[in-house]
Amino acid sequence: HPLASELAGALERDEVTLLFQPQFAADGALYGAEALVRWDHGELGKLAGDELVLIAQGSHGLSELARGLTDHVLRRALAAAGAWPDHLSLSLNVTAADLAAADFTAAVTAALADTGFDPARLTLEITEQAMVAELDRSAMRLEELVALGVRVALDDFGAGFCNFRYLKKLPLHYLKLDRSMVQGIAEDRRDLEVLRGIVAMANALDLKVIAEGIESEAQRDAVVREGCAAWQGYLGGKPMAAGDFAAL
Ligand code: G
Ligand code: G
Ligand code: MN
Ligand code: NA
């Protein structure tokens, strides 16, 4: 990728930063935050996580740069979260390439050990797309991570392929509802019924549901009423700098 060497330099100079979006429990208490990576390229503006992953992975997927980006996020996020009250959790996004790396579990173990962060407070978010290629290997890697005490969330549920096989095969703790699943719930009966069905299925599978993209009080009230365990979205706060989250 044409920006790969620039990104490598930015990582070295510690110019790749993290934002934290607050997550709230159903009762309204602050529950934790999702870390979202940003790189202010200057000329090209602020680049978000999905773009950075494309740059870092290039055509190889499992590149050294992708490993470097993930390790940077892991260490920076755990360092920031180490200063939070210890009932708050931290969520990180990981890719299929991260899970495919033979030493990913070792990297997470080392980062947890170096920071002293309680594994039970760490959730790794995986997307359905991330799983498609290598479901068995991903499942195996996730089992290793769960054995460390780490939690696993299936992210963006309801967007994309929505393959229910993942719910059967992967060791999951949370289902994160894509924002397209919550947008219409306050007005549209069909949207509400779809949400209701998913929450019932999730609960039967002992999965907690986290609703994403909550922008209005009506949406928040609906997901709480329907049994979602937690929510995040612009209503509760946009992704913010570590210092702003610590103040919150
Ligand atoms: O807030 P934002 O526009 O950054 O999120 C865009 C996308 O990038 C989301 O799908 C999010 O899951 C992904 N993303 C954000 N941060 C990271 C990260 O640190 N690693 C990976 N792999 N993906 C990320
Ligand atoms: O795919 P993932 O869920 O990891 O990505 C989260 C993305 O959703 C980020 O880009 C984040 O900035 C964005 N986001 C978070 N809350 C809201 C919201 O309430 N509304 C909208 N439109 N986007 C949101
Ligand atoms: Mn996510
Ligand atoms: Na999502």
UniProtKB/TrEMBL annotation:
Highest taxon in the source lineage: Bacteria
Pfam annotation, one family: EAL
CDD domains: EAL
Signal peptide: none
MF GO annotations: cyclic-guanylate-specific phosphodiesterase activity
Domain EAL, residue spans: 1-248
Protein name: EAL domain-containing protein
